[in-house]
Amino acid sequence: MARKLLLEHAHVEGIHTYEVYRKNGGYRSVEKALKTMSPEAVVEEVKKSGLRGRGGAGFPTGMKWSFLAKPEGVPRYLVCNADESEPGTFKDRYLMEKIPHLLIEGMITSSYALGANTSYIYIRGEYSWILFILEKAIAEAYAAGWLGKNIHGSGYDLDLYVNIGAGAYICGEETALLESLEGKRGNPRIKPPFPAVKGLWQSPTVVNNVETIAAVVPIVNDGGDEYAKIGIGKSTGTKLISASGNINKPGVYEIEMSITVEEFIYSDQWCGGIKRGKKLKACVPGGSSVPILPHFLVCKTAAGEDRLMTYESLADGGFATGSMLGSGGFIVYDEDQCIVRNTWNFARFYAHESCGQCSPCREGTGWMEKVLHRMENGAGKMSDIDLLVDVAKKIEGNTICPLGDAAAWPVSAAIRHFREEFEWHVNEPRVCMERNYGLVREAVIV
Amino acid sequence: MHTLTQNGTPFKYSPAALSEVQSLTKKYPEGRAKSAILRALHIAQEENHGWLSVSAMDEVAATLGITPIEVYEVASFYSMYNLNPVGKYVLEFCHTGPCAIEGAESLIEYTKLKLGIGKNQTTPDGMFTIKEVECLGACGYAPMMQVGEFYHEHLDTGKIDQFIEDCRADKIDKGTWKMH
Fold it and tell me: Given a cut of 70, is residue A435 above it in pLDDT?
């Protein structure tokens, strides 16, 4: 049976309430940290755990924490990034809905480690009902003395608040999130200075994903070394995977980072195989931004080795034959899915979500969407394919924030692996159109 | 896209909403009341029949002690704010990748045909508006839509029929942006 560190109690009746959460061992990490550990010792455990940022970038959390500037007399902030909006990703939502206290506990322990006395959770606007779940849980934590002044006699003070967004993918980028938290448009900032030096209201700030902060709880409880025993190489611990697409059992799964992709897709314990007995066509393993993999590169690497659900194995082969673990937004496509249509869909997403600050992204995402739209609707030209590759190349690396790269990668990867399907769209426009209208006709008949 | 042309009827927060917005500002350090703007706008939109008129935005500015332009520029950036009047029930369908490959597109077409309206349009009786939005983080439960505070998942045409009937019978909870 797979070990679960975050979702172990997710199905316990009433686990969203303080009483039940506490009875199941909740808030032990706060007790342990505040009573027996220095803040530096907590940071040390997180370093030892090998925990990497779970929002998508996979940057070592302990190292990120150690970059935090600590000038005298200046407040420091911990901000939790709960702006989950990467297409294919819904794990943070699951965690916050089911076990809100796990995030709150992680926020307290992490804030203590960083010396923050005020912390914020920035949650996306569409998760409005979760805002109230969190606020209720925070009120319970205050009432039980885990938040506020002099927490359980430790002399440590912490206030925790939830701030809600209002619909902007870009606010998941940490500096855009900080701008938004300051009550402005979500335009990413130029780095440096990094948030660790000048973040929220120009004060040193750490921004971490929900899952990252939740993982601090088992790390402090059982020790960083114990956490690092799970997983392979630099992919330590467990990871929440949001599984969606044409599979039998979509949902959120906690996996040890050592199982194979094949196991994950086909085992009844996880995705349960492809729906309606269809064949696997492609997979996007880490949220819409990461390169799509054709079926023959999903379960095996180009070298013929088993592909594992780890940062390293999913990236094996670089962008030529690999992808990324990203946020763990695992989207599975069956043989009936149209790669051109899906690529257009994602291009539309990035065009809509570009903040408009940098020209390559603002203009480039719009053009990629238009070109893919005409291709999908039977008006594409053969030269459009290379045009798309060219535009993607011109966006990549030329923008303030990673949204530009995130918009370029899915397009260039789709063309790299499925060029013949793009050519087919140009050569057989009528077939594409029929397919398109077919969708609508089906709907009317149903 | 976004145009700030509609003044709407004069808007003031209800006394309860006003005190809620004022208490929100206490979550931020002295002089940082502007940080409460997004939630203050959500509450104003809720009280102004689902959309933000210029008058509603001016009320937010006055309450937070910031200039109106600071509110306009924020309200026009975020997709959840409606800057034009909407119907009583705004059906916000996710049309992004994972929902699309699980049938969102045909479901949206079905709903448009059923209600006789297109994207960003409102039925003549003022009951329904259809919006198509980007990924709402419900990919495993596709296709789906958001109405008010809540998600409606694993949708199919039968569930859409039922939902529309329930709206007409006033049986759908949209939430109120208040603790529940």
Answer: no
